[in-house]
Write a structure and sequence with these properties.
CATH architecture of chain A: Beta Barrel
Number of helices of chain A: 0
Strand content of chain B: over 45%
Order of helices and strands of chain A: EEEEEEEEEE
CATH class of chain B: Mainly Beta
Helix content of chain B: under 10%
CATH class of chain A: Mainly Beta
Largest sheet of chain A: 10 strands, antiparallel
CATH topology of chain A: Porin
Radius of gyration of chain B: 15 Å
Distance between the termini of chain B: 7 Å
Oligomer: heterodimer
Number of strands of chain A: 10
Helix content of chain A: under 10%
Order of helices and strands of chain B: EEEEEEEHEEE
């Protein structure tokens, strides 16, 4: 990053989703749920698969902007489980799609994830959403 | 990843309230006595009576921060700001901060992720952005340099 805040790559997260569940208008906006049924993540310090059973709760606010609320479980290639959540903003009018991920794990090797803040840059690709996640240094 | 300066926020902390050991760690509350913010696109003051930092010192030594501020711009808009943050570092640095000393902000990790809500049209861009703040804990209160994530 410029201007004194620095970051470094943490992982690229690819999500596979099932058919969207359209909940419809709620007090917050129009809610839709993207069930996460799999995926992968890959970075210099960790890699593995996304377990089925998570999801992204997305609320549309009617002006092309959405707020995101995701929770998934990651399983590293050496068997550690990592609970990951993010909140985020998607504003299609301005091509802006950014998230704030957080991680929780009990695996000592990955305990650094408990102590960092991160930012994700999101993109919707034909095969599913892709998030390029950077650790805030 | 590109960012640009959104504002610098100078916070005056009031008297800390120690809640004490709770199931997830040691909790304390830091009410804010006031402060100011200034950036290229907005400036003003912190509304003291509706701003505080709810802190949790976790068992792994990391301080979690849950900040809720109300900002009032110099042209009268009211902006709600919330931020989740983490602070941790070498024990001697954290102890020096605890004693009220000024330490080099590069010697520890102090970052927050602010989010904003406002109804004022001039500042509605704040509703749609993600930001990152770098903190510098001074004896009189923290200084947050907040960058918009582009």
């Amino acid at each position: 990053m410029s201007d004194g805040i620095e970051s470094r790559p943490l992982m690229v997260l690819r999500l596979a989703t099932a058919a969207t569940q359209e909940i419809g208008p709620t007090s917050q906006g129009t809610l839709m749920i993207f069930p996460v049924i799999g995926g992968s993540f890959d970075g210099e310090r960790l890699r593995g698969t996304v377990l089925s059973g998570g999801g992204d709760w997305v609320t549309a606010h009617g002006n092309g902007s959405f707020t995101l609320d995701l929770r998934v479980t990651l399983e590293t290639d050496d068997g550690a489980l990592i609970h990951m959540t993010f909140t985020g903003v998607r504003d299609d009018a301005n091509h802006y799609f950014r998230t704030v991920p957080r991680f929780e794990t009990a695996a000592p090797k990955y305990a650094f994830l408990n102590r960092l803040l991160a930012v994700g840059i999101g993109e919707i690709r034909p095969e599913g959403p892709v998030h390029v996640i950077e650790e805030i240094l | 990843m590109n960012t640009r300066l959104l504002m610098t926020l100078h916070v005056k902390v009031g008297t800390l309230l120690n809640i004490g050991p709770v199931p997830h760690g040691i909790r304390r509350t830091a009410p804010l006595a006031g402060g100011t913010f200034e950036g290229p696109r907005l400036r003003g003051t912190i509304v003291p009576d509706s701003s505080a930092d709810w802190q949790l010192l976790r068992s792994d030594g990391v301080l979690e921060m849950d900040l809720r501020f109300t900002l009032r711009t110099d042209d009268g808009a009211v902006i709600s700001m919330s931020a989740f943050g983490l602070r941790h570092g070498p024990p001697e640095v954290i102890a020096a901060i605890g004693r009220g000393e000024t330490v080099d902000p590069a010697s520890y990790y102090f970052r927050t992720m602010p989010r904003f809500e406002t109804a004022h049209p001039a500042y509605s861009f704040l509703n749609r952005l993600i930001a990152v703040a770098s903190g510098d804990r001074r004896p009189e209160g923290p200084i947050y340099t907040i960058h918009e994530v582009l």
